[in-house]
Design goal:
Number of helices of chain A: 0
Shape of chain B: globular
Radius of gyration of chain B: 13 Å
Oligomer: heterodimer
Strand content of chain B: over 45%
Distance between the termini of chain A: 36 Å
Structural class of chain A: mainly beta
Number of strands of chain A: 11
Chain lengths: 108, 117
């Protein structure tokens, strides 16, 4: 099973700041990685697929990068609605998709 | 646009089973590889398994193998996930989701299953 490790576990930031979240895979997933955010009581929402492609309707302030084992999600100029939990997920090891444990983005 | 609507919350006794449904609309159901994801409260997401209706192929995560069964009813465009031998640790929200490529584009609203004596 491919293990995804996200860091940091929690990040406290202010609206308007830029943040970078990390996701590291235990083995190469090529570019088969996605990012989601999840707000309380809601299902996850796909933000980025194939490591760097924004999903339909996702604002341009979200960007993803990386390949192989190291990936980042960057959010430029945080909006109030961006405070949520962020998960990465690999789809390389079909049929054994796995998720990271999440990074919680809190308002400072 | 695909929409997935799940059945309502359930309360179950330890040792019993639960069957959660997921009704799809907005496309050709048999083409959708419907997957199920579990989220224990306050924790992360776990892929449980998935089915490709048009081929009838089903794959399960090793962790749930033997306890989970995923099926579909093409006549009603509905997928089902049945989990047996429930224990308190199975208290969770269960989501159905459809991937495109390796990531999940479409999600149901989630179904809370509470296992309690």
């Amino acid at each position: 099973e491919i293990v995804l490790t996200q860091s940091p576990a929690t990040l406290s930031v202010s609206p308007g700041e830029r943040v970078t979240l990390s996701c590291r895979a235990s083995q190469s997933v090529r570019n088969n990685l996605g990012w989601y955010h999840q707000k309380p009581g809601q299902a996850p929402r796909l933000l980025i697929h194939d490591a760097s492609t924004r999903a339909t309707g996702v604002p341009a302030r979200f960007s993803g990068s990386g390949s192989g084992t190291d990936f980042t999600l960057t959010i430029d100029s945080l909006e109030p609605e961006d405070f949520a939990i962020y998960f990465c997920q690999q789809g390389s090891d079909w049929p054994g998709m796995t998720f990271g444990q999440g990074t919680r983005l809190d308002i400072k | 646009q695909v929409q997935l609507v799940q059945s309502g919350a359930e309360v179950k006794k330890p040792g019993s089973s639960v069957k959660v449904s997921c009704k799809a609309s907005g496309g050709t159901f048999s083409n959708y590889p419907i997957n199920w994801v579990r989220q224990v409260p306050g924790q992360g997401l776990e892929w449980m398994g998935g089915i490709i209706p048009i081929y009838g192929t089903v794959n399960y995560a090793q962790k749930f193998q033997g306890r989970v069964t995923i099926t579909t009813d093409d006549s009603t465009s509905t997928a089902y996930m049945e989990l047996t031998s429930l224990r308190s640790e199975d208290t969770a929200v269960f989501y159905c989701a459809i991937p495109r490529g390796g990531t999940f584009d479409f999600w149901g609203q989630g179904t809370l299953v509470t296992v309690s004596s």
